[in-house]
Every structure is written in C-alpha cells, then in structure tokens.
Amino acid sequence: METKVLLPTKDNIKLVGEALRNGNIAALPTETVYGLAANALNGSAVKAVFEAKGRPMDNPLIVHISDFEQIEKFKLARKIPEKALRLAEKFWPGPLTVIVPKGEGVPDEVSAGLDTVAIRFPSHIVTQAVITAAECPLAAPSANTSGRPSPTAALHVLHDMNGKIPYIIDGGCCEVGVESTVVTVAKEQPVLLRPGGITLEQLIGVIGEVAVADAVLNKMQEGQKAESPGMKYKHYAPKANLVLIKSTLDKYIDYVNSRKSSDVGALCYDEDVPGLEVAAFPFGSRNDYVQQANRLFDSLRKIDETDLKLIYGRCPDTNGAAMAVYNRLIRAAGFEVIELA
Ligand code: TXA
Ligand code: MG
Q1: Distance 58 CA to ligand 2 centre (A)
Q2: Cis peptide leading into residue 190 (ω within 30°)
Q3: What is the pLDDT of residues 33-50, one digit of tens each?
Q4: 149 with 207, same domain?
Q5: DSSP notation for 181-196
Q6: Quick check: CB of 40 below 6 Å from ligand 1?
Q7: What SS3 class is residue 4?
Q8: Is the beta carbon of 117 within 6 A of some atom in ligand 1?
Q9: Is the minimum distance from the CB of 42 to ligand 1 under 6 angstroms?
C-alpha cells in the first residue's frame, strides 16, 4: 500500500474524512501526538488500527469528538458523571482524556471489552475538522508502532507506518508533545491514570481530590492489577541502555565525562551540553517542563538512529508538568535510576 502524506487543505480534510467514515484508517496531527484514527462506531475499522500498530487487542482506544453533543448523539457514554462535566467545561477542547461509563454506541473493539470508555475532545483545528468531515467520532491511539515513542511529527509516523496505512495528514510538530492526561471519573474517587499536558494540580483545582494510580510513578509489581490496560505493557525502551541520573548538574557532568567513550551518550537539559564530552541529546531547558515534554520523544527517536550503547539521562522532577516527562522517561529507562549524593 502506498502511504500518501497530505497537507491539511480543505480538499484533503474532506477526502480523509470520507475515507474514515467509510472504514479506512488515517494518521492525523493532534495537539498532543499524532493519532492513528478509525471510525469509532465501526468495529472492523478499529481492528485495522490495532493491526497497523501491532497493538494488543486488550488495550482500549480513546474516542475523539469535535463537539460535546456527540457524546449523546452517538451514545458514547451510559452516563456523564458531574465531575466529567466540570473537567470538560474547563479543559475541553484540549489534552485531557476522561474515562466514563461506556455507552451502547461504542463497539467492544474500542473499549477492549471494558464497561468504561475514554473520551477526548482535542483542540487541534485539523483534528476537529477531520472528525467533523468524517461525521463520526474517531477512535485513535498514538500513531506509532506499539513499543516505539509516540510520534510528534508526520515524519515519525511515516517512519513507523509507511506502506501500512493510506493517509497521513501533516500538520507540523505537535504542540504538547506527550500524550493526553488520562483521568477516570467512572467511580466515585477520580484517579489519574496517565499524566500529560493537563497537570494533577490543575485537575485537583477543578474536581477536588484526585488519586494518582500507583503505576504512574512506580514500577508495577508482579501480579498487580493495572488500573489502565496500557500500564501493563512494556513501554518504549531505546535500543541503547538508558540509565537515569538523579543529581546536581556538576555531578552529572563529572559522572558522564568520567565514563566517556564512543558508545556513551547523554539525554540531557540544554544547559548541560557545553560541559559534556559525549554525544548529547538535549530535550529542553532545565526548568522548562513544558518544553521538555515537547521535545522528549523526538530526542528518544534521534538516539535510536545512532549506534550508542549506553545513555545517561537526567532524572526529571515529578511535580507539575514534569510528572508527564518523568512518567515517560522512567519507563524508557526500565526504572533504572542512579542517585548521586
Ligand atoms: O494524546 C493522546 O491521548 C493520543 C492522541 C492521539 O489523542 N492518544 C493516545 O492513545 O495516546 P493511546 O492509545 O496511545 O493511549 C490511550 C491510553 C492507553 O494507556 C489505554 O490503556 C488507556 O488510555 N485507556 C483507554 N481506554 C481506557 C479505559 N476505558 N480505562 C482505562 N484506560 C483506558
Ligand atoms: Mg500510545
């Protein structure tokens, strides 16, 4: 199959919208990461998304809408809890996914048999326009091959999906750069399942207490039940061994430089680059967590293009917007952290 990369013109949006309505799949830009979309009401179209990604069928997808009314119109939710309404009012359209009791309009392929469904109203104008042109909600996971970093540019999608999908709409680089925040309000106590562009503090500001699922910051123990199916899968791990270093700047630089070799690289903050004597992959300024989130996946993909064997990464903070960066990096590192006193 030839994969066409299209600019988001009016005609192309109409073309891809119609293709999606008729059961084809296509990759689209969103404000978080690129998504691989299918008509969320069409179980066999949704299956094709799982196949193109190589994604296990028991890992449910997010349903994307371009108008709040579509939740009722397409019977996406059995009920919309009051906390979901408050979150939607404050953060939609935007990088927040809310899990609610599933409605009868959602095929089992989307929810992987769960009785809940994940819904997101993206803010990206192109995503909204394609959903509107498709005249149906779109189920879309990130448009990477399962196990690779999420794509934040059309070229990343092309790298993973060339020959496997008919269309990629190129909307440039994604603004947020990490996947949406996922919160469940399906039960009384809201739980943060995946940190993203909307922070824990922001959620708490709107709905009060929000628990953080254990697996967000910690390694899942054997036999522990995943609160979100995505948590139990092996996440992106670079080809090189990634080890995170928790320390001051000076100690980090000394530690890495004393291990200098042609096999060693550094996944570091912009300010660290001048002091480092190994190949450096900066992913943002030290205190700019928003920028770090934006550049992280691209830096990880760049590392995979090299033959480096060992990467020393800076261990991010866990507060505010840094939680999303920490959550992705600690998994990429297989939870391996060295703390330098
Ligand atoms: O920003 C995003 O969320 C991107 C763009 C394309 O919208 N999408 C995305 O989808 O990251 P995906 O499939 O890569 O991640 C969805 C996550 C998975 O970890 C999945 O297990 C979880 O959401 N999820 C989906 N439905 C769920 C449900 N009913 N209950 C618990 N977790 C759910
Ligand atoms: Mg994903």
Answers
A1: 13
A2: no
A3: 999 999 999 999 999 999
A4: yes
A5: EEEE-SSSS-EEEE--
A6: no
A7: strand
A8: yes
A9: no
Q: Which atom of ligand 1 is nearest to the CA of 144?
A: 14
Residue 156 located in a structural domain: yes
Mutate which of 182, 216, 294 for ligand 1? The one with the most ligand atoms within 8 Å of its CB, which is: 182
Predicted TM-score (pTM) of the model is 0.97
Radius of gyration of the chain (CA): 20
Closest atom of ligand 1 to CA, residue 34: 6
Q: Is residue 201 part of a domain?
A: yes
| Minimum CA distance residue for ligand 1 atom 15 | 141
Determine how many CB atoms are found less than 10 A away from the CB of residue 203.
23
Domain of residue 155: give its range: 4-217
Give the separation between CA 206 and CA 202, rounded to whole angstroms: 7
Q: Total domain count for the chain?
A: 2
Residue whose CA is closest, atom 6 of ligand 1?
A: 35
Establish how many alpha carbons lie within 13 A of residue 321's alpha carbon, considering only the half-sphere containing its beta carbon: 16
197-248 residue pLDDT tens: 999 999 999 999 999 999 999 988 888 888 888 887 767 888 899 999 999 9
**Is residue 103 within 8 Å of residue 76, measured between CB atoms?**
yes
**36 CA to centre of ligand 1 in angstroms:** 12
**Quick one: 211 and 245 in the same domain?**
no
